[in-house]
Recover the amino acids of this structure.
């Protein structure tokens, strides 16, 4: 934390030494890394693929900043989803909502959906959005989706 480094008189190149060693001597006083820093949680990413809805799906998704999750079928084919061990878009949305996900990326769509490609993503998005109010991305081949910026704790 810059203000704590200033308060303890730690300046470059001592900042690098402090990071590496965990302590540094400044003006006859030992300053520890814990005195001038705070722990920040890292970003969380979840990846859920080729599974039925189960307890571990929710565990993998819990508090993820970005969750990439299959939504192989629409709810109208829920029986097929269960039979073949896949999720529906609505189930993917439910997982995201109940697991406090920030952004969900829907992917791994069944080839049975052959309508023009500009209409299908909307159906998957809309079904997930019925239960999840966060950001929803419908992945396409070679999509690049950034992990959302970290939210700093208050």
């Amino acid at each position: 934390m810059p203000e704590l480094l200033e308060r303890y008189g730690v300046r470059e190149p001592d900042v690098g030494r402090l990071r590496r060693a965990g302590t540094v001597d400044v003006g006859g006083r030992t300053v520890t890394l814990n005195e001038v820093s705070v722990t920040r949680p890292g970003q969380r990413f979840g990846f859920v693929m080729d599974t039925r809805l189960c307890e571990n799906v929710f565990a993998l998704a819990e508090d993820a900043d970005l969750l990439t999750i299959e939504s192989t079928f629409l709810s109208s084919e829920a029986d097929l989803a269960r039979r073949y061990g896949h999720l529906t878009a609505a189930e993917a949305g439910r997982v995201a909502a109940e697991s406090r996900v920030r952004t969900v990326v829907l992917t791994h769509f069944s080839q049975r959906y052959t309508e023009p490609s500009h209409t299908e993503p909307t159906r998957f998005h809309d079904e997930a959005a019925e239960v999840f109010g966060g950001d929803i991305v419908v992945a396409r081949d070679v999509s690049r989706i950034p992990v959302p910026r970290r939210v700093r704790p208050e």
